[in-house]
Design brief:
The protein is mostly helical and about 400 residues long. It has 3 domains: about 1-60, no CATH class; about 80-245, 3-Layer(aba) Sandwich (Rossmann fold); about 250-405, Four Helix Bundle (Hemerythrin (Met), subunit A), CATH 1.20.120. About 55% of the residues lie in helices and about 5% in strands. The chain contains 14 helices and 6 strands. The chain has helices spanning about 1-5, 25-40, 80-95, 115-120, 145-150, 170, 175-190, 205-240, 250-275, 290-305, 310-325, 340-350, 355-375, 380-405, and strands spanning about 10, 20, 50-55, 100-105, 130-135, 160. Strand 4, helix 4 and strand 5 form a beta-alpha-beta unit. The longest helix has about 40 residues, at about 205-240. It is elongated, with a radius of gyration of 36 Å. This is DYN3 protein. It comes from Campylorhamphus procurvoides.
């Protein structure tokens, strides 16, 4: 029993019940599953491969291995592969209850680190970010990462930890983990720039720090998480109490539910027109804001576009006045005759009809679009959604016709 307990093995979620004791087989299974999910030509997928490792030599940790940023598509990768990978990474590191392990090679400029750049976007104060510097053994002679590891160059609140991983040659040569850890320890103890901090470097120390900081992070975020769960529990209990005696076939229940949905539609429509809704459209103007723009920008623009010939207008005014004074040609007046004024003004006002009708059409279209957005919440009830749109849109078109008649 003791032998079984201390045997290291791994299990995949997609291979339930199968235990892998050979970690070369684990690597092969990861490659096979990756090809199955993403294809054979370096595709990507946000669906995780869940692997659990049981060993007396490791601490309890949950790690999510995210891909590095690909700048140039290869193989059958889509042109926007960089944006796809970025979106997938952001999906995970945006969660407040996780720590971010920002891994950067030591032989590149730390200021250009994609990992640190992404981490700073979601964690600007560095409360959840731990820096990891790899490939310290591959740096050019005469250079080192001492300032980075001492947290002086680009400081992080949780600092940096240096590690030396196995090279591809070591992996191909079947160099085991124990030998790799001994070589890593020897590197830090023998390097003049790192020997004074050797106890704070290496994979075992990183493992220990991650376990400690993750535990502390969980303890810090647990109260807020517990409060959120309790709030959700109370809300659910309240709903259970409301629907405890619910009878689906009760006509009064159906009528009440229908009235509540119609009232909610009315509230949502009003909020979208007023601009006080809980959801703000960040892609385009909509609702009341767009209608406001039609009246204050589009309508004046249409008026400015109207053709106006001052010389022609003066000639029309002259003819109108002369035609009114046909029997009093030699009589002069201080003011323009009322009939001449009305005739000219009416003719000019008629020119406003086009821009007015165009504005009415634009406003009507936006109102109908707003109605469609509000009825999305009724999508569970297609008939109700369809009838609501038909009734409200019909009323809007009726008002449109009356407005056009008035114009």
């Amino acid at each position: 029993l003791l032998l079984i307990f201390f045997t290291e093995y791994a299990e995949f979620l997609h291979c339930k019940g199968k235990k892998f004791t050979d970690f070369d087989e684990v690597r092969q299974e990861i490659e096979v599953e990756t090809d199955r999910v993403t294809g054979m030509n370096k595709g990507i997928s946000s669906v995780p491969i869940n692997l659990r490792i049981y060993s007396p030599h490791v601490l309890s940790l949950t790690l999510i291995d995210l891909p590095g940023i690909t700048k140039v598509p290869v193989g059958d990768q889509p042109p926007d592969i960089e944006q796809q990978i970025r979106d997938m990474i952001m999906q995970f590191i945006s969660r407040e209850n996780c720590l971010i392990l920002a891994v950067t090679p030591a032989n590149t400029d730390l200021a250009n680190s994609d990992a640190l750049k992404l981490a700073k976007e979601v964690d600007p104060q560095g409360l959840r970010t731990i820096g990891v510097i790899t490939k310290l053994d591959l740096m050019d002679e005469g250079t080192d990462a001492r300032e980075v590891l001492e947290n002086k160059l680009l400081p992080l609140r949780r600092g940096y930890i240096g590690v030396v991983n196995r090279s591809q040659k070591d992996i191909d040569g079947k160099k085991d983990i124990k030998a790799a850890l001994l070589a890593e320890r020897k590197f830090f103890l023998s390097h003049p720039s790192y020997r004074h901090m050797a106890d704070r470097m290496g994979t075992p120390y990183l493992q220990k720090v991650l376990n400690q900081q993750l535990t502390n992070h969980i303890r810090d975020t647990l109260p807020a998480f517990r409060s959120k769960l309790q709030s959700q529990l109370l809300s659910i209990e309240h709903e259970v109490e409301v629907y405890k005696n619910f009878r689906p076939e009760d006509p009064t229940r159906k009528t009440k539910a229908l009235l509540q949905m119609v009232q909610q539609f009315s509230v949502d429509f009003e909020k979208r027109i007023e601009g006080s809704g809980d959801q703000v459209d960040t892609l385009e103007l909509s609702g009341g804001a767009k209608i406001n723009r039609i009246f204050h920008e589009r309508f004046p623009f249409e008026l400015v576009k109207m053709e106006f010939n001052e010389k022609e207008l003066r000639r029309e005014i002259s003819y109108a006045i002369k035609n009114i004074h046909v029997f009093y040609v030699h009589r002069t007046g201080l003011f323009t005759p009322d009939m001449a004024f009305e005739a000219i003004v009416k003719k000019q006002i008629v020119k406003l009809k086009g821009p007015c009708l165009k504005s009415v059409d634009l406003v009507m279209q936006e109102l109908i679009n707003t109605v469609k957005k509000c009825t999305k919440k009724l999508a569970t009830y297609p008939r109700l959604c369809e009838e609501t749109e038909r009734i409200v849109a019909g009323y809007i078109r009726e008002r449109e016709e009356k407005t056009k008649d008035q114009v």
